[in-house]
Design the sequence.
């Protein structure tokens, strides 16, 4: 009789153990499934983040392209500045590459050159197209365009180095430039490159109040400014790019 009771109890324990085991197994499966759901959710979030970043970049590039269109439209209205930024960009890229900048940095310089005068959108047309010398007040307004340009491109995170170039493309080695009166190597290299290309193209382009200078004349004028207002090494590289030439005495002229 006692043996029968013991066997019955043992069977009961065994059933309880089996139940407990099955409950534990079921919980384990639920945990694995919950873990899988969490992992899939995490992977989806990561993918969303990547997609969002791509969309954000595309949006920034689209804004950049719109700004390029705006800069082109601004230039195209004036026969004297038409194509200026594209030419400055091409020359600045070549100078930057010869100066040893990596390809990506040279591209940033070229892109900044394309937009270097976009801040002129804030300058009244009466000043932009004035067929004679500007008054002190008009110069004051004209000299704001590098800061305005830098502010326009400031929201483009991928273009922060370009914004610096826009701000400083009228700085001069001797501190006579604007907006910050930076000197020497204190002027960012990209801005010094754009300055040389900008001055060269301004000289070789006509203005309402003067004809364009020949390449040889412009080179002679660049040489005069080398080491004073323009970076000497970059002037030499610019001359290498556009081709050496002999010219008459320098005539005081520069990009606005
Ligand atoms: Fe400018």
Sequence:
């Amino acid at each position: 009789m006692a043996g029968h009771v013991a066997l019955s109890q043992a069977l009961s324990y065994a059933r309880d153990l089996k139940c407990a085991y099955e409950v534990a197994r079921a919980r384990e499966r639920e945990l694995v499934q919950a873990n899988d759901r969490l992992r899939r959710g995490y992977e989806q979030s990561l993918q969303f983040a990547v997609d969002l970043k791509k969309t954000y970049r595309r949006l920034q590039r689209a804004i950049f392209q719109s700004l390029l269109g705006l800069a082109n439209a601004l230039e195209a209205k004036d026969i004297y500045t038409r194509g200026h930024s594209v030419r400055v960009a091409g020359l600045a890229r070549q100078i930057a590459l010869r100066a040893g900048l990596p390809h990506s940095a040279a591209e940033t310089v070229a892109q900044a050159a394309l937009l270097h005068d976009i801040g002129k959108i804030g300058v009244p047309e009466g000043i932009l197209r004035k067929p004679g010398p500007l008054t002190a007040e008009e110069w004051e307004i004209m000299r704001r365009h590098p800061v305005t340009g830098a502010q326009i491109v400031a929201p483009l995170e991928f273009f922060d180095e370009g914004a610096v170039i826009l701000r400083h493309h009228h700085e001069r080695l001797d501190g006579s430039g604007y907006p910050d009166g930076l000197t020497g190597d204190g002027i960012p290299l990209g801005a010094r490159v754009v300055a040389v290309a900008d001055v060269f193209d301004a000289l070789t382009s006509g203005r309402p109040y003067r004809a364009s200078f020949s390449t040889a004349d412009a080179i002679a004028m660049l040489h005069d400014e080398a080491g004073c207002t323009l970076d000497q090494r970059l002037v030499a590289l610019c001359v290498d790019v556009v081709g050496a030439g002999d010219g008459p005495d320098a005539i005081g002229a520069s990009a606005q």
Observations:
- Residues 245-256 have pLDDT under 50 and may be disordered.
